[in-house]
Amino acid sequence: MNELLEIYRGFYFFNITDNLVYLGLIVAVTFDIILGVGRAWAQNDYNSRKFREGLVMHGLLVLCVTLVYPFLQAKALHFAVDGFLIMLSLSYLSSILINWKKMGGWIPNGIEQWIDSKLQKEVINKTKEKDYE
Description:
By secondary structure, the chain is an all-alpha fold.
C-alpha cells in the first residue's frame, strides 16, 4: 500500500508538470464543461438532468484517469496511455469547437465545414433515435 501511495505522491507533487498530455486532457474536459453549460444557457436549453449527467460522466473520466495514469506511468506503460489520452483530448476538442460554434464564436472556414458535417450527422442520429422511441 505504501508503494502505491508513493507512486501517487511522486506523480502529483513532483512530476505533474512533466505530463502535458494529462494536463491537456484535464484542461480540455474543464473547457468542455464550461462551454457546454454556456451553450445551453445561451440557447435557453439549460436542463439540470443533462448537466448532472454530463458532470458525472466527465467527473468519472477525470477520476479514472487521475487514479490510473500515475500507476501506469510508474509501470512504464505511459506511451500507450498517452495515445489513449491524446485520442480523448481530440474528442473533447471537437466537442469544444462544436459548443463554441453553437454559441456563435468565430471558427476558420475549413474547421467550420467539418463541424457542420458533424452537426448534420448529429441531427440525423437524433432523428433516428426518436423514430425508435
